């Protein structure tokens, strides 16, 4: 597969962004290539297109399969294994969010819950528990909110995003109205 400069630019950028999303650079490049490919492609074709080793491709594909972002496909009459991105961009983003929540937020919330169940031994631990409760509440709220956003589906989420700052303005107006003293 020969990449045009435009496609190569996207893939290289996606590789750099992948490290910020929980993947290494190579894995980010592999998923980017699979997302933009019209047809499923072999590991050898991936290695050639990205100019990386077949071993790197194999490890990257295994990681992407663990994240449920890539699926293996066989073509009738061929022994080669082909790979393609799993589902729509929306479905893939949801899988990444879900995996990141499981790998990062859930263990942190579990640790915080355990610590908060302990009786503080002194004033320093009591103060720390107050701060840890704030962290717990924030992470719990973010986790619940992100779960609700994932349930909306792409069309409703798109509508919500278009509302954007309008929601903030409504909430600001509500705060102003509630802050005004009544004239009774």
TrEMBL record:
Belongs to the GbsR family. It comes from the Bacteria. Residues 22-79 form the HTH marR-type domain. Pfam families: MarR_2 (PF12802). GO terms for molecular function: DNA binding; DNA-binding transcription factor activity. The keyword Transcription applies. This is HTH-type transcriptional regulator. Keywords: DNA-binding, Transcription, Transcription regulation. InterPro entries: ArsR-like_HTH, HTH-GbsR_regulator, HTH_MarR-typ, MJ1563, WH-like_DNA-bd_sf, WH_DNA-bd_sf. It comes from Paraglaciecola hydrolytica.
């Amino acid at each position: 597969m020969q990449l045009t400069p435009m496609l190569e630019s996207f893939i290289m950028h996606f590789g750099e962004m992948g490290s910020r999303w929980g993947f290494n650079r190579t894995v980010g490049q592999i998923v980017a290539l699979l997302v933009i490919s019209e047809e499923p492609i072999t590991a050898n074709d991936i290695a050639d297109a990205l100019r990386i080793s077949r071993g790197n491709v194999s490890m990257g594909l295994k990681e992407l399969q663990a994240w449920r972002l890539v699926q293996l496909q066989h073509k009738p009459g061929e022994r080669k294994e082909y790979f393609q991105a799993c589902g729509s961009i929306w479905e893939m983003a949801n899988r990444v969010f879900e995996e990141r929540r499981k790998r990062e937020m859930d263990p942190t919330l579990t640790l915080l819950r355990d610590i908060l169940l302990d009786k503080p031994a002194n004033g320093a631990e009591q103060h720390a528990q107050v701060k840890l409760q704030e962290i717990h509440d924030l992470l719990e709220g973010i986790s619940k909110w992100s779960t609700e956003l994932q349930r909306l589906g792409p069309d409703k989420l798109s509508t919500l995003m278009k509302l954007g700052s309008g929601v903030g303005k409504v909430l600001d107006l509500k705060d102003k109205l509630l802050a005004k003293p009544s004239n009774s």
